[in-house]
Amino acid sequence: MGGGALLVAGTTSDAGKSLVTMGLCRWLARRGVKVAPFKAQNMSLNSMVTADGAEIGRAQYAQAQAAGVEPRAVMNPVLLKPGSDRRSQVVVLGRPVAEVDAVEYRAHRGRLREVVLDSLAELRAAHDVVICEGAGSPAEINLRAGDIVNMGLARAADIPVVVVGDIDRGGVFASLYGTVALLEPADQALVAAFVINKFRGAVELLEPGLARLAELTGRPTLGVLPWRPGLHIDPEDGLALDAPRPGARAPYGRQTLRVAVARYPRISNFTDLDALTCEPGVVVRYATDPGDLADADLVVLPGSRATVSDLAWLRERGMADAIVRRAREGRPVLGICGGHQMLAREILDEVESGAGRVEGLGLLPTRVVFAREKTLARPTGVAYGQPVRAYEIHHGVVEVLGGDPFLDGCRVGAVWGTTWHGALENDGFRRAFLADVARCAGRDFTPAPDVSFAAQRAAMFDTVGDLVEEHLDTDAVWRLIEQGAPPGLPTLLSGF
Protein backbone atom coordinates (compact mmCIF):
# COMPACT_ATOMS: atom_id res chain seq x y z
CA MET A 1 0.00 0.00 0.00
CA GLY A 2 2.95 2.34 0.60
CA GLY A 3 3.01 5.34 2.93
CA GLY A 4 0.52 6.34 5.59
CA ALA A 5 -2.38 8.67 4.93
CA LEU A 6 -4.91 10.91 6.62
CA LEU A 7 -8.07 12.52 5.22
CA VAL A 8 -8.97 16.04 6.38
CA ALA A 9 -12.73 16.51 5.98
CA GLY A 10 -14.85 19.50 7.00
CA THR A 11 -18.32 20.29 8.22
CA THR A 12 -18.77 22.85 5.41
CA SER A 13 -17.00 24.48 2.51
CA ASP A 14 -14.38 26.97 3.74
CA ALA A 15 -14.23 25.31 7.16
CA GLY A 16 -10.44 25.18 6.89
CA LYS A 17 -9.70 21.85 5.18
CA SER A 18 -7.19 23.38 2.78
CA LEU A 19 -5.41 25.28 5.54
CA VAL A 20 -5.21 22.27 7.88
CA THR A 21 -3.98 20.07 5.03
CA MET A 22 -1.34 22.66 4.18
CA GLY A 23 -0.31 22.99 7.83
CA LEU A 24 0.04 19.24 8.24
CA CYS A 25 2.15 19.07 5.08
CA ARG A 26 4.40 21.87 6.30
CA TRP A 27 4.73 20.35 9.79
CA LEU A 28 5.64 16.93 8.42
CA ALA A 29 8.06 18.33 5.85
CA ARG A 30 9.91 20.24 8.57
CA ARG A 31 10.27 16.96 10.45
CA GLY A 32 11.99 15.43 7.43
CA VAL A 33 8.96 13.38 6.35
CA LYS A 34 8.44 13.00 2.60
CA VAL A 35 4.83 14.16 2.36
CA ALA A 36 2.44 14.98 -0.49
CA PRO A 37 -1.03 16.60 -0.61
CA PHE A 38 -3.96 14.98 -2.42
CA LYS A 39 -7.45 16.12 -3.32
CA ALA A 40 -9.29 13.52 -5.35
CA GLN A 41 -11.87 15.88 -6.78
CA ASN A 42 -11.83 19.63 -6.53
CA MET A 43 -14.40 22.18 -7.69
CA SER A 44 -12.53 25.42 -8.10
CA LEU A 45 -11.96 28.30 -10.49
CA ASN A 46 -8.54 28.98 -8.97
CA SER A 47 -6.13 26.69 -10.78
CA MET A 48 -2.46 26.51 -11.69
CA VAL A 49 -0.25 24.90 -14.33
CA THR A 50 2.39 22.39 -13.25
CA ALA A 51 5.88 22.29 -14.71
CA ASP A 52 4.82 19.59 -17.18
CA GLY A 53 1.76 21.52 -18.37
CA ALA A 54 -1.06 19.99 -16.31
CA GLU A 55 -3.86 22.03 -14.71
CA ILE A 56 -4.59 21.41 -11.02
CA GLY A 57 -6.30 23.30 -8.21
CA ARG A 58 -4.29 26.23 -6.98
CA ALA A 59 -4.75 25.06 -3.37
CA GLN A 60 -3.10 21.72 -4.12
CA TYR A 61 -0.28 23.51 -5.90
CA ALA A 62 0.29 25.62 -2.78
CA GLN A 63 0.07 22.57 -0.49
CA ALA A 64 2.76 20.86 -2.56
CA GLN A 65 4.95 23.94 -2.21
CA ALA A 66 4.37 23.88 1.55
CA ALA A 67 5.37 20.20 1.54
CA GLY A 68 8.53 20.98 -0.42
CA VAL A 69 7.63 18.72 -3.35
CA GLU A 70 7.00 19.39 -7.03
CA PRO A 71 3.27 19.87 -7.77
CA ARG A 72 1.89 17.09 -9.99
CA ALA A 73 -1.39 16.26 -11.70
CA VAL A 74 -1.89 13.15 -9.52
CA MET A 75 -2.23 15.43 -6.48
CA ASN A 76 -5.55 16.66 -7.91
CA PRO A 77 -6.61 14.08 -10.49
CA VAL A 78 -10.15 15.49 -11.00
CA LEU A 79 -10.81 19.23 -11.22
CA LEU A 80 -14.29 20.61 -11.92
CA LYS A 81 -14.48 24.17 -13.26
CA PRO A 82 -18.04 25.57 -13.20
CA GLY A 83 -18.99 27.65 -16.22
CA SER A 84 -22.58 28.20 -15.08
CA ASP A 85 -24.88 27.10 -12.28
CA ARG A 86 -25.47 23.79 -14.07
CA ARG A 87 -22.41 22.87 -16.15
CA SER A 88 -18.73 22.33 -15.40
CA GLN A 89 -15.62 21.51 -17.34
CA VAL A 90 -14.10 18.22 -16.17
CA VAL A 91 -10.30 18.23 -16.02
CA VAL A 92 -8.73 14.78 -15.54
CA LEU A 93 -5.03 14.45 -14.73
CA GLY A 94 -4.52 18.01 -15.83
CA ARG A 95 -6.39 17.93 -19.16
CA PRO A 96 -10.00 18.92 -19.98
CA VAL A 97 -12.09 15.95 -21.12
CA ALA A 98 -15.73 17.07 -21.07
CA GLU A 99 -18.35 19.74 -20.30
CA VAL A 100 -21.12 18.17 -18.22
CA ASP A 101 -24.06 18.85 -15.94
CA ALA A 102 -24.62 16.95 -12.70
CA VAL A 103 -26.61 14.19 -14.41
CA GLU A 104 -24.10 13.71 -17.23
CA TYR A 105 -21.27 13.62 -14.71
CA ARG A 106 -22.60 10.34 -13.32
CA ALA A 107 -21.57 8.57 -16.52
CA HIS A 108 -17.94 9.45 -15.76
CA ARG A 109 -17.87 8.36 -12.11
CA GLY A 110 -16.68 4.79 -12.64
CA ARG A 111 -13.68 5.83 -14.71
CA LEU A 112 -12.89 8.75 -12.41
CA ARG A 113 -12.94 6.49 -9.37
CA GLU A 114 -10.22 4.35 -10.96
CA VAL A 115 -8.17 7.44 -11.83
CA VAL A 116 -8.49 8.73 -8.26
CA LEU A 117 -7.48 5.47 -6.60
CA ASP A 118 -4.59 4.92 -9.01
CA SER A 119 -3.34 8.47 -8.38
CA LEU A 120 -3.50 8.03 -4.61
CA ALA A 121 -1.70 4.69 -4.83
CA GLU A 122 1.03 6.30 -6.92
CA LEU A 123 1.53 9.06 -4.38
CA ARG A 124 1.54 6.66 -1.43
CA ALA A 125 4.14 4.50 -3.13
CA ALA A 126 6.44 7.51 -3.60
CA HIS A 127 5.95 9.27 -0.24
CA ASP A 128 6.05 8.48 3.47
CA VAL A 129 2.71 10.22 4.05
CA VAL A 130 -0.13 11.56 1.91
CA ILE A 131 -2.44 14.16 3.47
CA CYS A 132 -5.78 14.00 1.65
CA GLU A 133 -8.28 16.84 1.61
CA GLY A 134 -12.00 16.26 1.35
CA ALA A 135 -14.53 18.50 -0.40
CA GLY A 136 -17.55 20.28 1.02
CA SER A 137 -18.86 18.01 3.76
CA PRO A 138 -18.76 14.20 4.04
CA ALA A 139 -22.35 14.39 5.33
CA GLU A 140 -23.77 15.41 1.95
CA ILE A 141 -25.73 12.16 1.95
CA ASN A 142 -27.43 12.91 -1.37
CA LEU A 143 -23.99 12.54 -3.02
CA ARG A 144 -22.64 9.61 -1.00
CA ALA A 145 -23.38 6.88 -3.58
CA GLY A 146 -20.95 8.37 -6.11
CA ASP A 147 -18.50 9.98 -3.69
CA ILE A 148 -14.81 9.73 -4.56
CA VAL A 149 -13.40 12.55 -2.43
CA ASN A 150 -14.76 12.15 1.12
CA MET A 151 -15.91 8.92 2.79
CA GLY A 152 -15.96 7.07 -0.52
CA LEU A 153 -12.22 7.65 -0.78
CA ALA A 154 -11.62 6.91 2.91
CA ARG A 155 -13.49 3.60 2.67
CA ALA A 156 -11.82 2.54 -0.57
CA ALA A 157 -8.31 3.24 0.72
CA ASP A 158 -8.93 2.58 4.46
CA ILE A 159 -7.85 6.08 5.53
CA PRO A 160 -8.61 7.61 8.96
CA VAL A 161 -10.57 10.86 8.88
CA VAL A 162 -10.32 14.06 10.90
CA VAL A 163 -13.27 16.48 10.63
CA VAL A 164 -12.61 20.24 10.78
CA GLY A 165 -15.31 22.58 12.09
CA ASP A 166 -15.38 26.36 11.66
CA ILE A 167 -16.36 27.85 15.01
CA ASP A 168 -16.47 31.36 13.54
CA ARG A 169 -19.70 30.40 11.74
CA GLY A 170 -21.35 29.29 15.01
CA GLY A 171 -22.93 25.94 15.83
CA VAL A 172 -19.66 24.07 15.62
CA PHE A 173 -20.55 21.35 18.15
CA ALA A 174 -23.81 20.54 16.43
CA SER A 175 -22.03 20.53 13.07
CA LEU A 176 -19.35 18.12 14.24
CA TYR A 177 -21.79 15.79 15.97
CA GLY A 178 -24.26 15.93 13.10
CA THR A 179 -21.59 15.23 10.51
CA VAL A 180 -20.73 11.93 12.19
CA ALA A 181 -24.35 11.02 12.99
CA LEU A 182 -25.47 11.38 9.37
CA LEU A 183 -22.88 8.89 8.14
CA GLU A 184 -23.55 5.18 7.76
CA PRO A 185 -21.82 2.97 10.36
CA ALA A 186 -18.97 1.83 8.11
CA ASP A 187 -18.14 5.47 7.37
CA GLN A 188 -18.40 6.45 11.02
CA ALA A 189 -15.82 3.79 11.85
CA LEU A 190 -13.17 5.83 9.99
CA VAL A 191 -13.97 9.22 11.55
CA ALA A 192 -11.39 9.30 14.30
CA ALA A 193 -11.20 12.86 15.63
CA PHE A 194 -12.15 16.52 15.30
CA VAL A 195 -10.32 19.83 14.87
CA ILE A 196 -11.90 23.21 15.63
CA ASN A 197 -10.76 26.08 13.44
CA LYS A 198 -10.91 29.92 13.52
CA PHE A 199 -11.40 30.31 17.28
CA ARG A 200 -11.23 33.81 18.78
CA GLY A 201 -10.88 33.85 22.55
CA ALA A 202 -9.71 31.74 25.48
CA VAL A 203 -9.65 28.00 24.77
CA GLU A 204 -10.69 27.37 28.39
CA LEU A 205 -14.18 28.57 27.46
CA LEU A 206 -14.49 25.67 25.03
CA GLU A 207 -13.33 22.91 27.34
CA PRO A 208 -16.78 21.90 28.69
CA GLY A 209 -18.08 21.64 25.12
CA LEU A 210 -15.06 19.65 23.97
CA ALA A 211 -15.45 17.24 26.86
CA ARG A 212 -19.17 16.75 26.18
CA LEU A 213 -18.53 16.25 22.46
CA ALA A 214 -16.03 13.51 23.30
CA GLU A 215 -18.57 11.86 25.64
CA LEU A 216 -21.30 11.95 23.01
CA THR A 217 -19.20 10.74 20.07
CA GLY A 218 -16.34 8.77 21.61
CA ARG A 219 -13.94 10.88 19.54
CA PRO A 220 -11.41 13.44 20.79
CA THR A 221 -10.80 16.96 19.54
CA LEU A 222 -7.15 17.08 18.53
CA GLY A 223 -6.86 20.81 18.98
CA VAL A 224 -8.31 24.27 18.53
CA LEU A 225 -6.68 26.45 15.88
CA PRO A 226 -6.87 30.17 16.67
CA TRP A 227 -8.11 32.78 14.23
CA ARG A 228 -5.23 34.28 12.24
CA PRO A 229 -6.10 37.27 10.04
CA GLY A 230 -4.48 37.43 6.63
CA LEU A 231 -4.16 33.68 6.01
CA HIS A 232 -5.67 33.69 2.52
CA ILE A 233 -3.36 31.22 0.80
CA ASP A 234 -4.81 30.25 -2.59
CA PRO A 235 -8.45 29.66 -1.60
CA GLU A 236 -10.54 27.39 -3.79
CA ASP A 237 -13.64 29.49 -4.33
CA GLY A 238 -15.18 32.93 -4.09
CA LEU A 239 -16.41 32.31 -0.54
CA ALA A 240 -12.99 33.46 0.57
CA LEU A 241 -13.70 36.90 -0.90
CA ASP A 242 -16.43 37.38 1.71
CA ALA A 243 -13.83 37.31 4.48
CA PRO A 244 -11.72 40.41 5.23
CA ARG A 245 -8.74 40.56 2.87
CA PRO A 246 -5.32 41.93 3.86
CA GLY A 247 -5.32 45.71 3.60
CA ALA A 248 -8.93 45.88 2.40
CA ARG A 249 -9.92 48.31 5.15
CA ALA A 250 -6.74 50.35 5.26
CA PRO A 251 -7.30 54.12 5.40
CA TYR A 252 -6.87 56.10 2.21
CA GLY A 253 -4.23 58.77 1.77
CA ARG A 254 -2.26 60.51 -0.96
CA GLN A 255 0.29 57.69 -0.82
CA THR A 256 -2.34 54.95 -0.99
CA LEU A 257 -2.89 53.21 -4.31
CA ARG A 258 -6.51 52.11 -4.62
CA VAL A 259 -7.28 48.98 -6.66
CA ALA A 260 -10.82 47.83 -7.49
CA VAL A 261 -11.28 44.30 -8.83
CA ALA A 262 -14.46 43.37 -10.71
CA ARG A 263 -16.08 40.51 -8.83
CA TYR A 264 -18.16 38.90 -11.53
CA PRO A 265 -20.04 35.62 -10.95
CA ARG A 266 -17.45 33.32 -12.58
CA ILE A 267 -14.33 35.12 -11.40
CA SER A 268 -11.31 32.84 -11.71
CA ASN A 269 -7.72 32.95 -10.55
CA PHE A 270 -8.34 35.95 -8.32
CA THR A 271 -5.15 34.78 -6.59
CA ASP A 272 -3.45 37.00 -9.22
CA LEU A 273 -4.29 39.95 -6.98
CA ASP A 274 -2.75 38.50 -3.82
CA ALA A 275 0.63 39.90 -4.84
CA LEU A 276 -0.83 43.41 -4.72
CA THR A 277 -2.06 42.96 -1.15
CA CYS A 278 1.50 42.32 0.02
CA GLU A 279 2.55 45.81 -1.09
CA PRO A 280 2.47 48.45 1.67
CA GLY A 281 0.12 51.26 0.68
CA VAL A 282 -1.90 49.23 -1.84
CA VAL A 283 -5.58 48.67 -0.99
CA VAL A 284 -7.42 45.96 -2.97
CA ARG A 285 -11.21 45.85 -2.88
CA TYR A 286 -13.68 43.74 -4.85
CA ALA A 287 -16.34 45.62 -6.79
CA THR A 288 -19.90 44.69 -7.76
CA ASP A 289 -21.29 48.15 -8.49
CA PRO A 290 -20.18 51.18 -10.58
CA GLY A 291 -19.87 53.22 -7.39
CA ASP A 292 -17.16 50.82 -6.20
CA LEU A 293 -14.98 51.98 -9.11
CA ALA A 294 -15.36 55.72 -8.62
CA ASP A 295 -12.27 56.44 -6.51
CA ALA A 296 -10.10 53.58 -7.77
CA ASP A 297 -6.67 54.38 -9.17
CA LEU A 298 -6.63 51.02 -10.98
CA VAL A 299 -9.53 48.83 -12.06
CA VAL A 300 -8.68 45.17 -12.69
CA LEU A 301 -10.77 42.83 -14.81
CA PRO A 302 -9.50 39.45 -13.58
CA GLY A 303 -9.84 35.98 -15.06
CA SER A 304 -13.23 34.47 -15.84
CA ARG A 305 -14.48 30.96 -16.53
CA ALA A 306 -17.38 32.48 -18.50
CA THR A 307 -16.05 35.51 -20.36
CA VAL A 308 -19.15 36.33 -22.41
CA SER A 309 -21.53 35.78 -19.50
CA ASP A 310 -19.43 37.83 -17.09
CA LEU A 311 -19.08 40.61 -19.66
CA ALA A 312 -22.89 40.69 -19.91
CA TRP A 313 -23.00 40.92 -16.09
CA LEU A 314 -20.71 43.97 -16.21
CA ARG A 315 -23.05 45.59 -18.72
CA GLU A 316 -26.19 44.75 -16.77
CA ARG A 317 -24.79 46.35 -13.63
CA GLY A 318 -23.57 49.48 -15.39
CA MET A 319 -19.95 48.65 -14.61
CA ALA A 320 -18.96 48.24 -18.26
CA ASP A 321 -19.92 51.83 -19.05
CA ALA A 322 -18.03 53.07 -15.99
CA ILE A 323 -14.90 51.14 -17.05
CA VAL A 324 -15.05 52.48 -20.62
CA ARG A 325 -15.59 56.02 -19.38
CA ARG A 326 -12.64 55.92 -16.99
CA ALA A 327 -10.36 54.42 -19.64
CA ARG A 328 -11.22 57.23 -22.06
CA GLU A 329 -10.35 59.69 -19.31
CA GLY A 330 -6.88 58.10 -19.09
CA ARG A 331 -7.52 56.32 -15.81
CA PRO A 332 -5.79 52.91 -15.49
CA VAL A 333 -7.47 49.60 -16.36
CA LEU A 334 -5.81 46.16 -16.39
CA GLY A 335 -7.34 43.05 -17.93
CA ILE A 336 -5.99 39.58 -17.11
CA CYS A 337 -6.93 36.53 -19.20
CA GLY A 338 -10.76 36.62 -19.33
CA GLY A 339 -10.59 40.30 -18.39
CA HIS A 340 -8.15 40.86 -21.24
CA GLN A 341 -10.62 39.20 -23.60
CA MET A 342 -13.40 41.55 -22.43
CA LEU A 343 -11.28 44.57 -23.43
CA ALA A 344 -11.21 43.45 -27.09
CA ARG A 345 -13.15 44.95 -30.00
CA GLU A 346 -14.92 41.67 -30.64
CA ILE A 347 -15.17 38.16 -29.23
CA LEU A 348 -16.01 35.12 -31.37
CA ASP A 349 -17.12 32.32 -29.05
CA GLU A 350 -18.59 29.09 -30.38
CA VAL A 351 -16.88 27.06 -27.66
CA GLU A 352 -17.39 28.36 -24.11
CA SER A 353 -20.75 30.16 -24.39
CA GLY A 354 -21.79 29.34 -27.97
CA ALA A 355 -22.79 33.00 -28.33
CA GLY A 356 -20.95 33.55 -31.60
CA ARG A 357 -19.89 37.15 -32.21
CA VAL A 358 -20.06 39.42 -29.17
CA GLU A 359 -18.97 43.03 -28.98
CA GLY A 360 -16.19 43.61 -26.47
CA LEU A 361 -15.51 46.79 -24.51
CA GLY A 362 -13.38 48.05 -27.39
CA LEU A 363 -10.61 49.44 -25.20
CA LEU A 364 -7.82 47.48 -26.88
CA PRO A 365 -7.13 46.82 -30.58
CA THR A 366 -7.60 43.08 -30.20
CA ARG A 367 -9.86 40.29 -31.43
CA VAL A 368 -10.63 37.09 -29.52
CA VAL A 369 -11.45 33.69 -31.01
CA PHE A 370 -12.27 30.81 -28.68
CA ALA A 371 -10.47 27.55 -29.52
CA ARG A 372 -11.63 24.09 -28.50
CA GLU A 373 -8.12 23.18 -27.40
CA LYS A 374 -7.24 24.70 -24.02
CA THR A 375 -3.91 26.50 -23.75
CA LEU A 376 -1.93 25.42 -20.68
CA ALA A 377 1.56 26.90 -20.49
CA ARG A 378 4.26 28.45 -18.30
CA PRO A 379 5.53 31.40 -20.39
CA THR A 380 8.39 33.77 -19.60
CA GLY A 381 9.03 37.26 -20.89
CA VAL A 382 10.17 40.79 -20.11
CA ALA A 383 8.20 43.96 -19.36
CA TYR A 384 9.42 47.30 -18.00
CA GLY A 385 12.89 45.76 -18.35
CA GLN A 386 12.00 43.16 -15.70
CA PRO A 387 11.84 39.36 -16.12
CA VAL A 388 8.37 37.84 -15.84
CA ARG A 389 7.42 34.21 -15.20
CA ALA A 390 3.72 33.40 -15.50
CA TYR A 391 1.18 30.77 -16.49
CA GLU A 392 -1.65 30.51 -19.02
CA ILE A 393 -5.05 28.76 -18.76
CA HIS A 394 -7.51 29.72 -21.49
CA HIS A 395 -9.59 28.79 -24.51
CA GLY A 396 -9.86 32.35 -25.81
CA VAL A 397 -6.99 33.27 -28.16
CA VAL A 398 -6.30 37.02 -28.33
CA GLU A 399 -5.10 38.45 -31.66
CA VAL A 400 -3.26 41.73 -31.08
CA LEU A 401 -3.85 44.20 -33.92
CA GLY A 402 -2.06 47.27 -32.55
CA GLY A 403 -0.96 49.14 -29.44
CA ASP A 404 2.30 48.85 -27.56
CA PRO A 405 3.54 45.36 -26.58
CA PHE A 406 2.77 44.30 -23.00
CA LEU A 407 3.77 40.75 -22.08
CA ASP A 408 1.78 38.66 -24.61
CA GLY A 409 -0.88 41.36 -24.96
CA CYS A 410 -0.81 45.11 -25.52
CA ARG A 411 -1.22 48.54 -24.01
CA VAL A 412 -3.05 51.60 -25.25
CA GLY A 413 -2.70 54.67 -23.04
CA ALA A 414 -3.62 53.62 -19.50
CA VAL A 415 -5.22 50.31 -20.53
CA TRP A 416 -3.19 47.11 -20.29
CA GLY A 417 -4.16 43.57 -21.28
CA THR A 418 -2.42 40.22 -20.86
CA THR A 419 -3.39 36.56 -20.89
CA TRP A 420 -0.67 35.74 -18.38
CA HIS A 421 -1.69 34.82 -14.84
CA GLY A 422 0.80 35.29 -12.02
CA ALA A 423 2.72 38.17 -13.63
CA LEU A 424 2.22 40.38 -10.57
CA GLU A 425 4.00 37.80 -8.41
CA ASN A 426 7.27 38.91 -10.05
CA ASP A 427 8.57 41.56 -7.66
CA GLY A 428 10.51 43.77 -10.09
CA PHE A 429 7.74 43.79 -12.68
CA ARG A 430 5.06 44.45 -10.06
CA ARG A 431 6.91 47.46 -8.68
CA ALA A 432 7.50 48.93 -12.13
CA PHE A 433 3.89 48.39 -13.17
CA LEU A 434 2.49 49.93 -9.99
CA ALA A 435 4.79 52.94 -10.35
CA ASP A 436 3.45 53.42 -13.89
CA VAL A 437 -0.14 53.08 -12.68
CA ALA A 438 0.50 55.65 -9.95
CA ARG A 439 1.95 58.06 -12.51
CA CYS A 440 -1.09 57.65 -14.79
CA ALA A 441 -3.44 58.08 -11.83
CA GLY A 442 -1.63 61.11 -10.45
CA ARG A 443 -1.05 59.35 -7.16
CA ASP A 444 1.95 60.00 -4.85
CA PHE A 445 2.73 56.32 -4.47
CA THR A 446 6.11 54.64 -4.63
CA PRO A 447 6.27 50.82 -4.29
CA ALA A 448 8.41 49.50 -1.46
CA PRO A 449 11.81 48.44 -2.84
CA ASP A 450 12.28 45.27 -0.79
CA VAL A 451 8.93 43.42 -0.75
CA SER A 452 9.27 39.77 -1.78
CA PHE A 453 6.03 38.00 -2.60
CA ALA A 454 7.75 34.59 -2.57
CA ALA A 455 9.26 35.26 0.86
CA GLN A 456 5.89 36.39 2.28
CA ARG A 457 4.28 33.30 0.83
CA ALA A 458 6.90 31.00 2.40
CA ALA A 459 6.42 32.79 5.72
CA MET A 460 2.68 32.11 5.55
CA PHE A 461 3.37 28.43 4.91
CA ASP A 462 5.48 28.45 8.07
CA THR A 463 2.75 30.26 10.00
CA VAL A 464 0.24 27.57 9.05
CA GLY A 465 2.76 24.87 9.97
CA ASP A 466 3.30 26.61 13.32
CA LEU A 467 -0.45 26.60 13.99
CA VAL A 468 -0.55 22.84 13.54
CA GLU A 469 2.57 22.20 15.59
CA GLU A 470 1.57 24.50 18.46
CA HIS A 471 -2.17 23.86 18.70
CA LEU A 472 -2.81 20.26 17.61
CA ASP A 473 -1.95 17.05 19.39
CA THR A 474 0.64 16.09 16.79
CA ASP A 475 1.47 12.82 18.55
CA ALA A 476 -2.16 11.76 18.13
CA VAL A 477 -2.09 12.90 14.50
CA TRP A 478 0.98 10.79 13.87
CA ARG A 479 -0.63 7.74 15.46
CA LEU A 480 -3.61 8.09 13.12
CA ILE A 481 -1.29 8.33 10.11
CA GLU A 482 0.69 5.27 11.17
CA GLN A 483 -2.03 3.08 12.68
CA GLY A 484 -5.29 4.25 11.10
CA ALA A 485 -8.58 4.83 12.89
CA PRO A 486 -8.69 3.08 16.27
CA PRO A 487 -10.97 0.02 16.38
CA GLY A 488 -14.26 0.11 18.20
CA LEU A 489 -15.24 3.73 17.65
CA PRO A 490 -18.87 4.19 18.72
CA THR A 491 -21.61 4.30 16.09
CA LEU A 492 -24.01 7.19 16.56
CA LEU A 493 -27.70 6.73 15.83
CA SER A 494 -27.94 7.66 12.17
CA GLY A 495 -30.99 6.05 10.63
CA PHE A 496 -28.92 3.78 8.39
UniProtKB/TrEMBL annotation:
Residue numbers annotated as active site: C337 (nucleophile), H421
Pfam families (alphabetical): CbiA (PF01656), GATase_3 (PF07685)
Domain CobB/CobQ-like glutamine amidotransferase residue range list: 258-427
Annotated SUPFAM superfamilies: Class I glutamine amidotransferase-like, P-loop containing nucleoside triphosphate hydrolases
CDD domains in the record: CobQ_N (cd05389), GATase1_CobQ (cd01750)
This protein's UniProt keywords: Cobalamin biosynthesis, Glutamine amidotransferase
Residue ranges crossing the lipid bilayer per the database entry: none
NCBIfam families, per database record: cobQ (TIGR00313), PRK00784.1 (NF001989)
Protein name: Cobyric acid synthase
Gene: cobQ
